[in-house]
Amino acid sequence: MENRKDMISRHKRKPYIIGWGITSQCNLSCPHCFSAAAKRPRDEMTTDECKRIIDSMARIEVGVIGWTGGEPLLREDLEELIDYARQRGIKSSVTTNAVLLDLKRAESLVEAGNRAIQISLDGSTPEKNGRMRLATEEEFYKIIEAIRICKNLNCRVLLATLLGRENLGDGLEMIKLAKREGVDSIRFCGYTPIGRGRRNDIKKRLCFSENLEDLLHFAKKAQADCSIITEFDSGFGPVPPEYKFHRCRAGVETFYLKGNGDVYPCTALLHRQFRVGNIRENLLEKIWNSPEMWAVSDFPRDEVEGACRTCDNFADCRGACRGTTFAYTGDLKASFPVCLYKVARKTAVIK
């Protein structure tokens, strides 16, 4: 029998911020892309379909839509949809590689109601960014100019950098770049073997399994810099100095909607078995209230196996992100595979 506490908490669930991969088309071909973005598919939702979905989002009280892709700027109706969402009481934030974000497009986004931009950049120089994202020198400088344009338009700018073994040494330079360009914060995204990132050659380039000590050292230095907001996403698990892990929001405060209508609890769970439903086949309200939506968030942590269960930080960490764990191991019960706390404890014992 379902206990009353669970019933109450589920009744209060509200999708504060959701991700919407409005298109899987992209002008870049990043080797690590979680959505494996490429050409525009035939089953991408139309403008009218998107507006009906926004109506449904308003009914379940979505607070913010994070428009992503692929490259959302390739949708010519993006501003129309942002404006429509605003009319329905929903705020917007756009995630873009910014290559196409010139002054005219930035002004158009602001006029539509978008006041926050997350710009993806994975290297502090054209050469370093090119190795990570297969972008050209010209595209690198277009991205830098886009950051400046958005700041001049009083947009909140968040810099997002995928951090893997190959570009870890560039991490501090990325922080310097972020401060130099006056962005509001920089978020380091943990490499997760999903989408194109599942390829073995990408794993060899980016996986931290062999040098977590270097990652720990960087995380400590980055977190100690109080001159800019520096964040690490769930792919890193618990990070210093607190080594606490946030409560899983998958299907509780967020969900992810693909351009073809498929709905998942979050971007860390883009595996077929976690697909909750398709918005073309069922109402969003029913999908949102499906038990499969919060199943991973409610995953019983006493079923986590291995090193996590004997760790003295388990009460605060609870085994970290189950989505990241599944991407690495294929098992929701497995221990978190890239644990910085374990490395910190081992280093302390050695010293």
Give a description of the structure.
Helices cover 35% and strands 13% of the residues. It has 351 residues and is an alpha/beta fold. Strands 7-6-5-4-3-2-1-8-9-10 form a 10-stranded mixed sheet. Helix 4 (103-112) links the parallel strand 3 (91-96) and strand 4 (116-120). The longest helix is centred in the middle third of the chain and has 16 residues, at 137-152. Mean pLDDT is 93; it is low at 1-8.
Task: Characterize this entry briefly.
By secondary structure, the chain is α/β, with parallel strands linked by helices. The chain has helices spanning 4-11, 47-59, 78-87, 103-112, 126-133, 137-152, 171-180, 200-206, 212-224, 284-288, 314-317, 322-329, 340-350; strands at 17-21, 64-68, 91-96, 116-120, 156-163, 185-190, 229-232, 256-257, 262-264, 277-278.
SSE blueprint and pairings:
Layout (H helix, E strand, L loop, with lengths): L3 H8 L5 E5 L25 H13 L4 E5 L9 H10 L3 E6 L6 H10 L3 E5 L5 H8 L3 H16 L3 E8 L7 H10 L4 E6 L9 H7 L5 H13 L4 E4 L23 E2 L4 E3 L12 E2 L5 H5 L25 H4 L4 H8 L10 H11 L1
Parallel strand pairs: 1-2, 1-8, 2-3, 3-4, 4-5, 5-6, 6-7
Antiparallel strand pairs: 8-9, 9-10
Helix pairs in contact: 3-4, 5-6, 9-13
The chain-level structural class is: alpha/beta
Percentage of residues in strands: 5-15%
Strand segment count: 10
- What distance lies between the first and last C-alpha atoms, to the nearest angstrom? 50 Å
How is the largest sheet built, in terms of strand order? 7-6-5-4-3-2-1-8-9-10
Gyration radius from CA atoms, angstroms: 20 Å
Could you state the order of secondary-structure elements as H and E? HEHEHEHEHHEHEHHEEEEHHHH
Low-confidence stretches: 1-8
Mean pLDDT: 93
Tally of individual helices: 13
Helix content: 25-40%
What is the general shape? globular
Largest sheet: 10 strands, mixed
